[in-house]
Amino acid sequence: MASGTRDKTASTGGTGAKGSSGEGGMPFLPALMAGPFLGMFEGPMREMTQMQAGATKAMFDAFLGHAPAPEEAAAPEQQQWQQVAERLNAMWQKFLQGQPAMAASGVVDPVRWMSTMGRWMEQWPIGGDEAHSRFFTDSMTLWDGVLAQMGVGEKPAEGVTLPRKDRRFKDPKWQEQPLYAVLHQAYLLLSEQMLAAADKAQGLTPERKDQLRFFTRLMTEALSPAHFPLTNPLVLEKTLQTGGENLVRGMEHLIADLDAGKLTHTDRNAFVLGENIAATPGKVIYESPLFQLIQYSPVTDTVLATPLMIFPPWINRFYILDLGPKNSFVKWAVEQGLTVCLVSWKSADASMAEVAWDDYIAAMEEAIDVARDRFSVPSVHTIGYCVGGTTLAAALAVMAREGRGDKVASATYFTAQVDFTEAGELKAFIDEQQLAMIDSLAGEGFVDGRYLALTFNLLRSPDLIWNYVIRNYLLGEDYVPFDLLYWNGDTTNLPAKFHREYLKNLYHDNLLVVPDALSANGTPIDLRRNATPSYIQAGVEDHIAPLKSVWKLTRHLSGPIRFVLAGSGHIAGVVNHPDAKKYQYWTIGDPADRDQTPPDTLDAFREVAVETPGSWWPDWIRWIESLDAARVKATGRRKPGGKGDKVIEDAPGRYVRMK
């Protein structure tokens, strides 16, 4: 297939975007097929393509600049497509005029991207000559089998059962038409071969091999025929139905996203902080240059005597735990009779260039002391989510070493890691070259949150990138309000110094689990000194903090530990309101057992753990109450902003609104 790709590409002048119409009047194929599928368009396949192309020829001729011969009459349909093409071109040229640097870079030139992609595919070895031969044989078998089932070949059709399944092609239109059936099946076959070649690559370190696998997967995902207008039957149908208006709307979406520097997932005008998202009532009771501290208003007559302090990750906004009334952990915890305090971290700016991990560790103890003083209590319960949990584990180790560990009654870790030997695909972004690139992105002393968002989106690119490329740009669909996606797009910046040392010391060098290898504000960190009763939650399908990695936390802490394995992933595994009756969780023993110790291995845990349908939140609150069930009246400072209680402002505060 590679040699066939070269021949076809050469015959069309490299990309074929503006070449002569050629046989079948289809000059757009080389660009839209991105190179690797051109060899399929021979014999019966070319004939089928020509048949299907009749209804769309005028449209693509207009888009790709094929002018009719002088003697040809400009039919109304042809004029319509030309008008749409002119509108698209005018919109694009206007955008480029306002972005001269972007235009000069070539990054938005589709012809250059297609040409580069085609050359890359031509050079891909797919495992050597033997693999080439096997790929050719498999391709022919696939071709004959699929076409025969559809009645195109010599054998009669007896129902279509395609050999490869993928949810990206679940729409019946991908199976009903021979062209698209063979096309997407050939793509899946090619993807298998490319990924297999990456797995068999020799002479690489384990880290480099993981990187090769990861970036090969990203490339195969990008090559999907669903991402090109002609090779996606749903886009082609929509374009014909709307007279190209879907492409005009898609262009509007694309230009808006390029201006904003990030992909839009949802209707951002549908949500207002403090009104229909992050809207649980409360007050900002304390403020530092690094964080605001929110206390939420009680809804019960009495509350647990020991308050709860939540440390969300500062890589995203805190309100992942307070999205809406039906999926807010904060609101639910308040309803259980907890005095809930939560840290809202400030998004970094140039003034925070020297903020380091030490500062976040110190900030946690600062917030804990504010709550202890405010409520006149000896200790607080704590929760740390993701990087917030990692930092909480370190902070508690430091406090214990300094004799202040009794300030915290319990620690709950949501999908938190301390041992990064099996930290998943994020490690593909963390080597010396990647760290140097990150440094170059932090010229003003902070790392732009849009880069971080892209990194996390790449971990699930079919769902968080390409799905929206199809919907937003190709189909031109309107944005649908979705609170979780609104939060996902509300990015935060990170201090450059913190970001660099966190990636280098933890992800790259894995020093946090080496006793005294790191220190915070002059105190060596030894996680074994952290003897605070712990509740550790992990997600079965977590792609950011993988289950095996989170489990390792149980090996590095002292004191009683309850481990809970939740259904779903990094977000849905945590934010799962009991009323939703979704997913499940696995535990060992009763949450009221205060002296629990997990088994030695994750496999041993899974062998004996009991599955319970629904949310694990009720299990957690029983564990909290087992530590101290004493209650007090919800009066005085337990009601923030009451008589004589000076507060700063209403929740969710100013910091969460800062970009």
The main β sheet shows up as: 11 strands, mixed
Unreliable parts: 1-73, 154-158
CATH superfamily of the largest domain: Alpha/Beta hydrolase fold, catalytic domain
Proportion of beta-strand residues: 5-15%
Helix content: 40-55%
Topology of helices and strands:
Elements: H1 2-11, H2 29-33, H3 43-53, H4 57-63, H5 76-98, H6 100-105, H7 110-123, H8 129-149, H9 173-176, H10 178-199, H11 206-222, H12 233-242, H13 245-260, E1 282-287, E2 291-296, E3 302-304, E4 308-311, H14 329-335, E5 340-345, H15 357-375, E6 380-385, H16 387-401, E7 408-414, H17 432-440, E8 446-447, H18 449-458, H19 461-474, H20 483-489, E9 494-495, H21 496-508, E10 519-520, E11 523-524, E12 534-539, H22 547-551, E13 561-566, E14 584-587, H23 602-608, E15 610-613, H24 617-627, E16 631-633, E17 649-650
Parallel strand pairs: 4-5, 4-6, 6-7, 7-12, 12-13
Antiparallel strand pairs: 1-2, 1-17, 2-5, 3-16, 8-9, 10-11, 13-14, 14-15
Helix pairs in contact: 1-7, 4-5, 5-13, 8-10, 10-11, 13-19, 15-16
